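Lecture notes, unit on binding sites. The following record was shown on slide 14. It pairs a sequence with zinc ion.
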Amino acid sequence: MNHTYVLQHCRLIPQLSEEGAPELADIVIRDGIIAGIRESGKKTYEGMEVFDLAGKTLMPGIIDAHIHLSMTETNPAEANYVDPCARTLRDLKYAKHLLDIGVTTVRDCGEDRYFSVTALRNAVNEGTVQGPHIYTSGITMTPTNAGGTPDSEFGYMVPYNVDSKEEMRKAVRINFARGADFIKLYGTGSMMGKGSVPGIGIMEDYEILEAVKIAEENETYCAIHCHGAKAIVQALNCGVRTIEHASFIDKEGLDLLAGRKDAGIIPTLSVTMELIEHTDPDSEYGKHVIPKVSALLEKIRICLNSAYQRGDILIGWGTDQSLAAYTREPGSEFRHRHDFLGWNNADILKQATVNSAVLMGIDDRTGLVAEGKDADLIVIDGDPVNDITVMYRKPEHVFLKGTMIR
Ligand SMILES: [Zn+2]
């Protein structure tokens, strides 16, 4: 390729940039990689392609570490009836939307039974279509339980009911054979599933241990959907890397995570708040989900704050929300972590970038404005460290591996 250009007069955020990076910098990008970071005004770039950012903020692209690209319909029941080829195209529509609002890396935590997200990831990697970097779990592993069977409202997403070590081994191996990047387990009931209890553990140690073992043999890891405190402790003791949602995490779980870089939690406030703020209260779905989630909200706030306030827990970024919700409000996760949880702006920005990269084990490639990393970058008109509301709207520009998307 050998395409080199310079982003000039970029305002960098120290917490999201390499150590010692100047506050106002020129960034040299070569073949999609950040090749140099220099103090602005020290050098002229004669004969080179230069793009002047005029003091606007340059930061890493957002990493959404918990999403389902197959969740394009507002009502989950509708999704059960989308045909497989149409599904892949809808996944692509969602992926393109994410890229447009500055999400340059996506971790899909459970796709449909046709592996449409895996197909999309392959198409992106081949260069057939343009989309964010995608890491997919394939199909989720869900023990037989209320709200988690193929005939439930989420039937398109949860077809592997695993109820023994042998069934787990088989299902995990099928996922890897089909190209999964990691494995997603269900350790507790869910907020959304009818009859499902989020606080209650549903998986046995020997099932989790088997999944973790085979994931490690494939040089990757397990993520687990876990709201309840006991199930979180169980999962961590079995070697699971990322705790999804982590709604009711307690001191025992936090002690197991203290100071670690190889495990952490991925809260998903957007989906929880979305269920309350935007589900039709008169619909069948609304009638069961709104009272159920509302009753748990204060406890979620207290538990997530106990994780944050310790300062030694790796907290990542997830939204778990549908395309419709993401379209309505691109920055809802920023809003909820700021308004509902009261977290510090710089910490929130780290969660959305570098922390998630570390949790996913891709920090060698992305998550920081640093020499040698992919040029997955966004340009923000404003200073998000002082005013997080600038993240509620689309960034001014998006770069994916050095290519300007817009
Ligand atoms: Zn999810």
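Take-home: The chain has two domains: 4-60+368-404, 62-360.
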